[in-house]
């Protein structure tokens, strides 16, 4: 079972398939911004020297873009490195992870010998976080609460005002709060809806440029934190130069590309609505509303996720089998949202394949 989407390399090795529509990875279909391609071609000289080990210019760019101070930003080799560093630094004995969600939170916690408990987002409640139930659970005593917002794979987003309530619940229970906002750029209002604006020293916010700017091969993540002690400890544990010169150049260029950003925001606003409405027409599937660039689907007929995945590979489509997410099973799949032409084909094939066996 794949832990993540996007493993097209394994598909090529095992099945000899070199070309496929990858709907298992949630990447902006516009691809690399042209501004970045041009900038890389003009700046090969940056590869001839070490990056600044303190990444001052990079952190200043990220701070300005997010309305923060440079001292509140820490960068890493993708959001995953930041997550693992934070868990190692915090060294919690007992953590609560809101599930179903990204598997790397639990993997990072397990490396610290932490007891990991799951807080279930229930399907019958639309995968919406029940704050009253969360408050009662946190009374059991946890060192850390982990929330992905918007959540992967459910696509649900907790608005800022509600997240502020969650932050209060966590603080009053003596629980640190880590919020992964890797997909927040796809949410309407995006950064204005971020919990980072609360500037609460109890909150650690993780971000990534990977999804929105279509740069999964350029590993760049960062965190926003208003706790100087935490920042100092993380800096003390990290290895030097984990962010390379290409990643540093990328951030400086793409965050200023307003044309690309606005085009992408307009695309996701339109396409996620269209794709949700079209999928709901399928008679053997249930589709959940999404506020980001992927859609969770439950198979209500005789199909299961593994069989459907294999059938869709025959159609040149790779989907995410969600049966390895906690609280999900072989009835759940996740579909990325891509360009309209390919979305039309994928929706047609998903509906057709799920109708084959009733």
What is the gist of this entry?
The protein has helices spanning 8-15, 34-42, 56-66, 79-90, 104-110, 131-138, 160-172, 228-237, 245-254, 258-279, 305-314, 340-356; strands spanning 21-22, 73-76, 94-99, 115-120, 144-148, 176-180, 203-208, 221-225, 285-287, 294-299, 317-318, 320-321, 332-336. With 358 residues, the protein is α/β, with parallel strands linked by helices.
Commentary on this structure:
The protein has 2 domains: 8-31 and 258-356, Aspartate Aminotransferase, domain 1, CATH 3.90.1150.10; 34-254, Aspartate Aminotransferase, domain 2. The protein is built from 12 helices and 13 strands. It has helices spanning 8-15, 34-42, 56-66, 79-90, 104-110, 131-138, 160-172, 228-237, 245-254, 258-279, 305-314, 340-356, and strands at residues 21-22, 73-76, 94-99, 115-120, 144-148, 176-180, 203-208, 221-225, 285-287, 294-299, 317-318, 320-321, 332-336. It has a 7-stranded mixed beta sheet with strand order 2-8-7-6-5-3-4, sandwiched between helices. The longest helix has 22 residues, at 258-279. It starts with 7 loop residues before the first helix and ends with a helix.
Which features characterize this protein?
globular; 358 residues; Aspartate Aminotransferase, domain 1; 2 domains; alpha/beta; 12 helices; seven-stranded mixed beta sheet
Topology:
Layout: H1 8-15, E1 21-22, H2 34-42, H3 56-66, E2 73-76, H4 79-90, E3 94-99, H5 104-110, E4 115-120, H6 131-138, E5 144-148, H7 160-172, E6 176-180, E7 203-208, E8 221-225, H8 228-237, H9 245-254, H10 258-279, E9 285-287, E10 294-299, H11 305-314, E11 317-318, E12 320-321, E13 332-336, H12 340-356
Parallel strand pairs: 1-11, 3-4, 3-5, 5-6, 6-7
Antiparallel strand pairs: 2-8, 7-8, 9-10, 10-13, 12-13
Helix pairs in contact: 2-9, 4-5, 4-8, 6-7, 10-12
